[in-house]
Design goal:
The chain is of the alpha/beta class. It has two domains: 62 residues, Ribosomal Protein L25, Chain P (Beta Barrel), CATH 2.40.240.20; 159 residues, SPOUT methyltransferase, trefoil knot domain (Alpha/beta knot). Helix content is 31%, strand content 24%. It is built from six helices and eleven strands. α2 runs parallel beside α3 and α2 packs parallel to α6. The two termini are 25 Å apart. 36% of the residues are buried.
Length: 238
């Protein structure tokens, strides 16, 4: 935890904040904080700054939050679309890409996505929010990403992709069979990642018809979370 993330509601009563649960455990056992120590804090969708530990016991940590004036780092200029992976992988994608600065996520269905994945509690607002907060804490960021779900491939490729392409400079889909290497650019870009087994030929054709170019990350099939991080690093980082 490189940033103690505070909720807007916790700041409504002034500068004194009490941490319990997961944040308390981390501050106590990992930071090993003591009274008088300073911690980096930030408010969700707000600014960052310092807080001083004013009290700590076996249940909670008391903080006195100073003036928060530091703005969050600029987001990566990427819209990331991923064929819905299995729940543990979904958590990794949300955490790791949020830590890198991704702010727009879209998850969609495809032929090789198991329908049971859509019934997982990992898609619930509370669990998704938890993963996003873990990513923000790691990346020392406060801007909460947006997550959207598309339960049908046809609707995704016919409606969502054209709409998203209007908001970016270019759009690509990652595919092992693509001969073109993934470009390196810091422009606004849409990237689409398929399931573990890759896109089926029909899906490749529909993605191309929608205006996306196929790109590769080398000859080796990658896990979804690895492909996502590789694309975000190559395409999004300046």
């Amino acid at each position: 935890m490189n940033l103690v993330l505070l909720e807007q509601a916790e700041m409504s009563m002034g500068c004194n904040v009490v941490l319990s649960g997961r944040r308390y455990e981390h501050v106590k056992t990992v930071h090993r904080a003591k009274v008088g120590d300073s911690l980096r804090v930030g408010v969700v969708d707000g600014c960052m700054g310092e807080a001083v530990v004013t009290g700590i016991d076996d249940r909670e940590v008391q903080l006195s939050v100073g003036e928060l004036t530091e703005v969050a780092p600029a987001p990566l200029p990427l819209v990331v679309c991923v064929a819905l992976p299995r729940p543990p992988t979904l958590n990794k994608v949300l955490q790791q890409l949020t830590a890198m600065g991704i702010k727009r996520f879209h998850f969609f269905h495809s032929r090789r996505v198991e329908k049971s994945f859509w019934q997982s509690h990992a898609l619930g607002d509370d669990e998704v929010g938890r993963q996003l907060r873990l990513g923000l804490e790691q990346g020392r960021d406060t801007r909460m990403p947006q997550v959207q779900w598309h339960r049908g491939f046809r609707a995704f490729v016919e409606e969502a992709v054209p709409s998203l392409l209007e908001t970016v400079t270019a759009g690509y889909f990652a595919h092992v069979g693509a001969g073109r290497p993934c470009p390196s650019t810091a422009e606004e870009t849409l990237v689409v990642v398929g399931p573990e087994g890759g896109f089926v030929p029909y899906e490749v054709t529909r993605l191309e018809e929608a205006g996306l170019g196929g790109v590769g990350l080398g000859p080796r099939p990658l896990r979804v979370e690895t492909a996502c991080v590789s694309l975000a690093a190559r395409v999004g980082l300046p």
